[in-house]
Write a structure and sequence with these properties.
The complex is a heterodimer of chains A (344) and B (252).
Chain A (H helix, E strand, L loop, with lengths): L5 H12 L5 H13 L2 H10 L12 H26 L8 H26 L5 H9 L16 H22 L5 H29 L3 H20 L11 H6 L7 H19 L9 E3 L4 E3 L5 H11 L3 H14 L1 H19 L1
Antiparallel strand pairs in A: 1-2
Chain B lengths: L2 H24 L8 H29 L5 H6 L10 H4 L5 H22 L5 H29 L3 H14 L11 H8 L6 H19 L21 H9 L1 H5 L6
Helix pairs in contact in B: 1-2, 1-8, 2-6, 5-6, 5-7, 5-9, 6-7, 6-9
Classes of the chains: A mainly alpha (344), B mainly alpha (252).
The structure holds fe (ii) ion.
Chain lengths: 344, 252
């Protein structure tokens, strides 16, 4: 809070909101801009917990980092529809089918908000989607794992959405305004999904022996990939320092992972399921769980494109996009004709 | 045939049409031509499954043998399903999917509007809730017909082909039998001739604006209402019912 820029930040905030209404402040703005380096001012704003908005000056690297992160996030929502959509036609009751449909629909909505947030940074949706389809852009590796049984729909909600929420709650306070606002909406829906997933697991865990086995098997397969969702450990994380300074991120990968583990281990106990980690144990001094070694070789392998479903996911996205081309063209052509008719 | 028996079958038919079409639309999830359409298709699928559940719950009540919506959805076989053949037809391209929905919606709306005036209070209540949803379905499927028909040469051709392919399934929507006759006489089910004329005028006006040609009324495929389906339905049910069949009696 001792940055020299802070004093001006409050004026700038007013000016930014009502640029024409404060001619005197507009002068101050000019002076301030001259006196302060733009980057210092930007950092002062971030430090003062003011949101950065699309029209504000921002370092190019901040913009790039955000575009990368938000687009990856958007792609994850969209690709995530595939493993979950995989069970819509096989959901075991009409109620479950309706809940799953609604959930996958929410994910599509999240994708849309996030592509819009990306557009505020100058990345067109067309180009962003193209980067996904060409394999250039990444998405959360977790969605390269298959949903093999109905219990996986429970596990995805409980663990994958549960892990995602840790990140997303933090991102509700991220420094970039449109991203933070998109996250507030998304978080509400995501925590609902997490409860629904937990409920699926809970019904299975209390069900027949076969159902309980299905739930345990699913936890066994999803546990470690879920922990990997938080990314490399802090010591090996390349993007973290700037992201923390710019308050894009506000907690480290390992802090978030710890919170997730502490919470989820207790939930597994309530379910009567066993976390597949022999080294897992409560540490009375730190008041946290200690856990075993994450197989980072597996993580890197999936990120590199060799996960169980990487190819299928990209094929499915490309197929949808290519086969939808004539539909999008028809809509554009018709809109064009209508506009012409109106003008005539 | 008693009114109760007829009403049970009538509810199953409404439930099955909605459930099977919802299932087909659900197959699109994650594969739509753009995200907005994924959302719109899921919306439609959700509305239809909601309506299906209302009808199947009511069918179970009317039958009085303690069967739940899930018993009826998951434990009947192909020959016991009573949906029209139109809704079980594969998705095909987006034109086939939208034409299938348009034909269904253009029939569904006047049917449900008439059912809001049914002497059976529960049917009237279900219909009153459904008509708002269906009006929106018809608006959006009609809009796509127009966009396709009056869009590009390719979209026009695809829409016309889909219409020509699916038209043969439109006649069954209006087929009447004893079930309809018994309920019509009791003021429970509407006059299908009136529903047909509303359908005709919707189709006429949308196709005209879409610059598409209404196919000739030639042979009309029937049999769905009597459980004589196309080969597609068996596969759909095998998929839909797999967990319930594999783990009898389990709660999900
Ligand atoms: Fe989401």
């Amino acid at each position: 809070m001792n940055s020299p820029g802070l004093f001006f930040v409050h004026y700038l905030m007013i000016i930014n909101e009502r640029p024409t209404a404060y001619p005197i402040f507009a002068n101050i703005k000019t002076v301030a801009m001259e006196d302060l380096k733009l980057e210092e001012l930007f950092q002062a704003k971030v430090d003062a917990e003011l949101k950065i908005e699309p029209k504000d000056w921002m370092p190019e690297k901040y913009r790039k980092t955000l575009i990368r992160q938000i687009s990856q996030h958007a792609h994850s929502e969209v690709v995530g529809m595939l493993p979950e959509g995989n069970w819509i036609t096989r959901a075991p009751s009409l109620r479950r089918k309706a809940i799953l449909l609604a959930k996958v629909q929410d994910e599509a909505g999240h994708g849309l908000y996030l592509y819009s947030a990306c557009e505020t940074l100058g990345a067109t949706r067309e180009k962003t989607v193209e980067d996904l389809n060409s394999g250039k852009a990444k998405y959360s590796s977790i969605f390269n794992y298959p949903t093999l049984t109905w219990a996986d729909i429970g596990a995805v909600g409980w663990l994958v959405d549960g892990a995602a929420i840790m990140n997303q709650v933090m991102l509700c306070r991220t420094s970039y305004g449109p991203y933070a606002r998109a996250m507030v909406r998304i978080c509400k829906e995501e925590s609902f999904h997490q409860r629904q997933g937990y409920e699926i697991m809970s019904v299975l865990a209390k069900g027949t022996p076969e159902q309980k086995e299905m739930a345990q098997d699913s936890l066994n397969r999803w546990w470690w990939p879920s922990l990997m969702m938080f990314g490399p450990s802090d010591a090996n994380s390349t993007n973290s320092a700037d992201s923390m300074k710019w308050k894009i991120k506000r907690q480290s990968n390992d802090e978030l992972r710890q919170t997730f583990i502490d919470r989820t281990v207790q939930q597994a106990e309530i379910l009567g399921l066993t976390i597949p980690d022999a080294k897992l144990k409560w540490n009375e001094d730190t008041k946290h769980y200690e856990w075993g070694d994450i197989d980072w070789a597996e993580f890197n392998n999936v990120v590199a494109g060799n996960g169980p479903c990487n190819k299928e996911r990209l094929v499915a996205r490309n197929k949808a996009h290519d086969e939808g081309a004539w539909v999008r063209e028809a809509a554009m052509a018709y809109a064009g004709k209508q506009a012409k008719r109106k003008a005539a | 045939m008693t009114i109760q028996e007829a009403l049970f079958t009538y509810c199953l038919r409404r439930g099955d049409d909605n459930l099977i079409l919802s299932h087909r639309l659900g197959e699109w999830c994650g594969h739509g031509p753009q995200l907005e359409e994924d959302i719109a298709l899921t919306n439609r699928a959700l509305d239809l499954i909601g309506q299906a559940r209302n009808y199947l719950q009511y069918a179970g009540q009317v039958e009085g043998k303690g069967r739940s919506e899930d018993d009826l959805a998951y434990l009947r076989n192909e020959r016991q399903y009573t949906n029209v053949k139109l809704v079980e037809q594969p998705n095909g391209d987006y034109a086939h999917t939208m034409v299938r929905s348009f034909l269904f919606d253009a029939w569904h709306l006047p049917l449900q509007q008439a059912l809001t005036r049914s002497k059976d209070d529960q049917l009237a209540a279900i219909a009153s809730k459904a008509v708002k949803e269906i009006a929106y379905h018809l608006k959006t499927s009609g809009d796509w017909m127009i966009r396709f028909g009056d869009g590009t040469a390719e979209s026009h051709q695809r829409a016309q082909r889909a219409l020509d392919d699916l038209w043969t399934f439109s006649g069954e929507l209006f087929a009447t039998d004893d079930v309809e006759a018994v309920l019509f006489a009791a003021g429970i089910a509407p006059d299908m001739a009136a529903v047909k004329s509303a359908f005709d005028s919707t189709v006429q006006s949308v196709l005209t604006e879409a610059t598409l040609k209404r196919p000739m009324d030639a042979y009309m495929a029937t049999g769905g209402r009597q459980g004589k389906h196309s080969e597609h339905l068996g596969f759909m049910l095998a998929e839909m019912q797999y967990l319930q069949r594999a783990y009898p009696g389990a709660i999900w």
